């Protein structure tokens, strides 16, 4: 695998995301040079997330390379991120478990929201592929990561009293036009 190893960057500078220099990779003249060098918000977030994950692997004992990373390491990373969460998730022993709007504060921990974790995994999966990883070998697409995300979603839904079940779409009601007026029928006055 031709992955960028986290150990290959001794100065702690962000590793470049390959393929973003549109001027160098294209034979066409760009319309604006600033448009070709600015990254979208998604690309910036993806780069920050990738650098954070690589930093986590460097600090892991023993340090790991991305190519040696597995789904279990991804789960440890997601659990590590819980300490920086901003959403209150009630424990099952909490009296406010299952209430969408608790009436008083409690000592339950703050955690990462399921939607944030799901988006993070998507960005890391994209970054993994950009750095030379094969999609079928991605630790971010591992079965364990999918099961973990599903369990987090279900638990947070129960703890906060929020339903994540898909809502059925109601069939569109047909609006029938009124019958046309004929010459035989008298007009209502």
From TrEMBL:
Q: Pfam families from the xrefs?
A: ALOG_dom
Q: List the protein's name.
A: Protein LIGHT-DEPENDENT SHORT HYPOCOTYLS 3
Do you know which PANTHER family this protein is assigned to? PROTEIN G1-LIKE2, PROTEIN LIGHT-DEPENDENT SHORT HYPOCOTYLS 1
| UniProt-listed GO biological process terms | mRNA transcription; response to light stimulus
What GO cellular component is one of the record's annotations? Answer: nucleus
Q: Where is this region: Disordered?
A: 160-189
* Primary location recorded for the protein, binned into one broad class: nucleus
Q: Which UniProt keywords apply?
A: Developmental protein, DNA-binding, Nucleus, Transcription, Transcription regulation
GO molecular-function term, one example from the UniProt record: DNA binding
What family, per the record? Belongs to the plant homeotic and developmental regulators ALOG protein family.
Its subcellular locations are: Nucleus
- PROSITE patterns xref list: ALOG
Q: Where is the ALOG domain?
A: 41-168
